[in-house]
Specification:
This protein is α+β, with helices and mostly antiparallel strands and about 120 residues long. It contains 2 helices and 7 strands; from the N terminus they run ααβββββββ.
Length: about 120
Protein backbone atom coordinates (compact mmCIF):
# COMPACT_ATOMS: atom_id res chain seq x y z
CA UNK A 1 0.00 0.00 0.00
CA UNK A 2 2.86 2.34 0.85
CA UNK A 3 4.42 1.67 -2.57
CA UNK A 4 1.15 2.48 -4.31
CA UNK A 5 0.92 5.82 -2.49
CA UNK A 6 4.51 6.67 -3.42
CA UNK A 7 3.87 5.71 -7.05
CA UNK A 8 0.70 7.87 -7.21
CA UNK A 9 2.53 10.81 -5.61
CA UNK A 10 5.34 10.50 -8.17
CA UNK A 11 2.87 10.37 -11.06
CA UNK A 12 1.02 13.40 -9.71
CA UNK A 13 4.27 15.34 -9.38
CA UNK A 14 5.33 14.51 -12.94
CA UNK A 15 1.89 15.37 -14.35
CA UNK A 16 1.71 18.70 -12.54
CA UNK A 17 5.22 19.68 -13.62
CA UNK A 18 4.41 18.96 -17.25
CA UNK A 19 1.18 20.98 -17.28
CA UNK A 20 2.38 23.76 -15.01
CA UNK A 21 5.29 24.80 -17.20
CA UNK A 22 4.58 24.03 -20.84
CA UNK A 23 7.50 24.73 -23.12
CA UNK A 24 7.29 25.49 -26.80
CA UNK A 25 10.30 25.05 -28.98
CA UNK A 26 10.30 26.95 -32.24
CA UNK A 27 13.60 26.21 -33.85
CA UNK A 28 12.98 28.20 -37.02
CA UNK A 29 10.29 30.62 -38.12
CA UNK A 30 7.57 29.40 -40.44
CA UNK A 31 8.34 29.79 -44.11
CA UNK A 32 6.32 32.52 -45.74
CA UNK A 33 4.63 31.84 -49.02
CA UNK A 34 4.25 34.38 -51.75
CA UNK A 35 0.51 33.83 -51.41
CA UNK A 36 -1.23 33.69 -48.03
CA UNK A 37 -2.57 30.19 -47.33
CA UNK A 38 -6.18 31.33 -46.99
CA UNK A 39 -6.12 32.97 -50.43
CA UNK A 40 -3.76 30.63 -52.24
CA UNK A 41 -6.06 27.63 -52.44
CA UNK A 42 -9.38 29.41 -52.46
CA UNK A 43 -11.80 29.44 -55.34
CA UNK A 44 -14.11 32.48 -55.28
CA UNK A 45 -17.22 32.60 -57.46
CA UNK A 46 -19.03 35.90 -58.12
CA UNK A 47 -22.10 36.12 -60.37
CA UNK A 48 -22.60 38.96 -62.83
CA UNK A 49 -26.35 39.53 -63.22
CA UNK A 50 -25.88 41.93 -66.17
CA UNK A 51 -24.09 39.43 -68.41
CA UNK A 52 -25.41 36.16 -66.96
CA UNK A 53 -21.86 34.94 -66.50
CA UNK A 54 -19.88 34.29 -63.35
CA UNK A 55 -16.38 35.36 -62.43
CA UNK A 56 -14.14 32.73 -60.86
CA UNK A 57 -11.08 34.03 -59.03
CA UNK A 58 -8.20 31.75 -58.21
CA UNK A 59 -4.56 32.25 -57.28
CA UNK A 60 -2.29 29.67 -58.86
CA UNK A 61 1.25 28.85 -57.85
CA UNK A 62 2.03 27.45 -61.32
CA UNK A 63 0.91 28.22 -64.83
CA UNK A 64 -0.95 25.53 -66.71
CA UNK A 65 -4.23 24.34 -68.16
CA UNK A 66 -7.37 23.60 -66.22
CA UNK A 67 -11.04 22.79 -66.53
CA UNK A 68 -13.93 24.56 -64.83
CA UNK A 69 -16.76 22.12 -64.14
CA UNK A 70 -20.10 23.15 -62.64
CA UNK A 71 -22.10 20.41 -60.92
CA UNK A 72 -25.73 20.60 -59.86
CA UNK A 73 -27.16 19.28 -56.58
CA UNK A 74 -27.30 15.73 -57.88
CA UNK A 75 -23.70 15.76 -59.09
CA UNK A 76 -24.50 16.04 -62.78
CA UNK A 77 -22.20 18.20 -64.90
CA UNK A 78 -24.13 21.22 -66.20
CA UNK A 79 -21.24 23.36 -67.52
CA UNK A 80 -17.66 22.72 -68.63
CA UNK A 81 -15.07 25.22 -69.77
CA UNK A 82 -11.36 24.84 -70.47
CA UNK A 83 -9.14 27.55 -69.02
CA UNK A 84 -5.52 28.61 -69.14
CA UNK A 85 -4.11 29.50 -65.72
CA UNK A 86 -1.32 31.99 -65.22
CA UNK A 87 0.99 31.98 -62.24
CA UNK A 88 -0.54 34.29 -59.67
CA UNK A 89 -4.03 35.78 -59.68
CA UNK A 90 -6.51 34.56 -62.29
CA UNK A 91 -9.93 35.92 -63.20
CA UNK A 92 -11.93 33.47 -65.29
CA UNK A 93 -15.26 34.32 -66.91
CA UNK A 94 -17.58 31.32 -66.89
CA UNK A 95 -20.23 31.70 -69.57
CA UNK A 96 -23.89 30.60 -69.64
CA UNK A 97 -24.68 30.86 -65.94
CA UNK A 98 -27.90 32.59 -67.03
CA UNK A 99 -29.09 29.27 -68.54
CA UNK A 100 -28.93 27.47 -65.17
CA UNK A 101 -31.98 27.02 -62.98
CA UNK A 102 -32.05 28.38 -59.44
CA UNK A 103 -30.40 26.11 -56.92
CA UNK A 104 -27.17 24.96 -55.32
CA UNK A 105 -24.16 24.23 -57.49
CA UNK A 106 -20.54 23.24 -56.97
CA UNK A 107 -17.93 24.99 -59.07
CA UNK A 108 -14.79 22.87 -59.51
CA UNK A 109 -11.45 23.83 -60.97
CA UNK A 110 -9.46 20.81 -62.07
CA UNK A 111 -5.79 21.64 -62.64
CA UNK A 112 -2.90 19.41 -63.58
CA UNK A 113 -1.93 19.13 -59.92
CA UNK A 114 -5.08 19.44 -57.82
CA UNK A 115 -8.85 19.94 -57.76
CA UNK A 116 -10.45 22.93 -56.03
CA UNK A 117 -14.14 23.46 -55.40
CA UNK A 118 -16.55 26.03 -54.01
CA UNK A 119 -20.28 25.89 -53.32
CA UNK A 120 -22.47 28.35 -55.18
CA UNK A 121 -26.12 29.36 -54.74
CA UNK A 122 -27.82 30.72 -57.83
CA UNK A 123 -31.08 32.64 -57.55
CA UNK A 124 -32.76 34.94 -60.01
Amino acid sequence: MKQLIILLAAMFTIASSITAHPTFEDKKPAARSRFPEDIKNQLLVTPNPKTGNALVRFTSEKAGKGMIVVLDETGNTVLKQQVVLLEGKNKINVNNFVNLAEGYYTVCLNTQHKTYSAPFLLWK
